[in-house]
């Protein structure tokens, strides 16, 4: 059995605010150690319960956060950027299941540090379905007919996953009080929970279906200001919807939509309020 795991950071145990997820700030080194330990709980358990290959993709910020020298020895790691498929780099049809760890709620929703890729994005839409990172990544997995079997993160991410994917197993390691305050398990207790939920996800793998994307999706990004939309619309094939900050792109498939999202959000980051 081959398993794939995308590891974000905002949903990791005990992390309440940006001082833990910004590599320039004082809590970051503590956070990346907890992040690596949390990944190891899942990887080690998976190998004990039938996995014979496990690929981990570091999916936060510059995507070089996981401590490779402390990662479980039998796993392989994709680290660094820029990656053509970002948070789902390396995923393909050869995997039996995907796991999302350290995930958070989408922009505009309750949850610790909730956002969608960048803080300039208000909403992503695949056709008319509003999604965040979790949903968009799950659609990419569904393109390869790979089910997302386990999501670990805050309660906002768990709720979002359960609404999108029937029978998915979730592990909420912390409860959001506000966007920058949480009630959290300790790393020891969250490790126990993640191990338990990994076993449950593997045992129920056949009951969890892939989130299949539309064949030729209309992909839309709603930005926070019009300047961001103007920058994003410099990408060929896009247009700004009238009287809005929404940029539309007609994609041939979800993979093209995903790469369009990466380009548009990078362009939009050039906008300022000056």
UniProtKB/TrEMBL annotation:
Which Gene3D superfamilies does the annotation name? Dipeptide transport protein
Q: Name one GO molecular function term.
A: metal ion binding
Q: Name one Pfam family in it.
A: Peptidase_M55
Q: Does the keyword Repeat apply?
A: no
Instruction: List residues binding Zn(2+) 2.
Output: 8, 60, 104, 133
Keywords linked to the UniProt accession? Aminopeptidase, Hydrolase, Metal-binding, Protease, Zinc
- Transmembrane segment boundaries: none
Stated name of the protein: D-aminopeptidase DppA. Metallo peptidase. MEROPS family M55
Native source species: Piscibacillus halophilus
């Amino acid at each position: 059995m081959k398993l794939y795991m995308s590891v974000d950071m905002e949903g990791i145990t005990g992390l309440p605010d940006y001082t833990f997820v910004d590599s320039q700030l004082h809590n970051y080194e503590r956070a990346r150690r907890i992040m690596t330990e949390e990944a190891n709980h899942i990887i080690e358990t998976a190998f004990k319960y039938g996995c014979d290959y496990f690929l981990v993709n570091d999916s936060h910020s510059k995507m070089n956060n996981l401590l490779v020298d402390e990662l479980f020895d039998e796993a392989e790691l994709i680290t660094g950027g820029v990656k053509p498929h970002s948070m789902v780099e390396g995923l393909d049809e050869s995997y039996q299941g995907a796991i999302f760890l350290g995930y958070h709620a989408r922009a505009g929703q309750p949850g610790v540090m909730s956002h969608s890729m960048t803080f300039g994005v208000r909403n992503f839409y695949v056709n008319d379905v509003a999604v965040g990172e979790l949903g968009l990544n799950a659609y990419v997995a569904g393109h390869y007919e790979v089910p997302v079997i386990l999501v670990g993160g805050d309660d906002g991410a768990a709720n979002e996953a359960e609404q999108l994917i029937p029978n998915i197993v979730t592990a909420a390691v912390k409860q959001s009080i506000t966007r920058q305050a949480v009630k959290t398990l300790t790393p020891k207790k969250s490790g126990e929970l993640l191990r338990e939920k990994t076993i449950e996800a593997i045992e129920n793998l056949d009951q969890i279906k892939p989130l299949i994307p539309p064949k030729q999706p209309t992909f839309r990004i709603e930005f926070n200001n019009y300047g961001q939309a103007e920058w994003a619309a410099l990408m060929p094939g896009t247009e700004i919807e009238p009287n809005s900050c929404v940029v539309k792109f007609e994609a041939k498939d979800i993979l093209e939509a995903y790469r369009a999202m990466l380009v548009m959000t990078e362009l939009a980051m050039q906008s300022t309020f000056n």
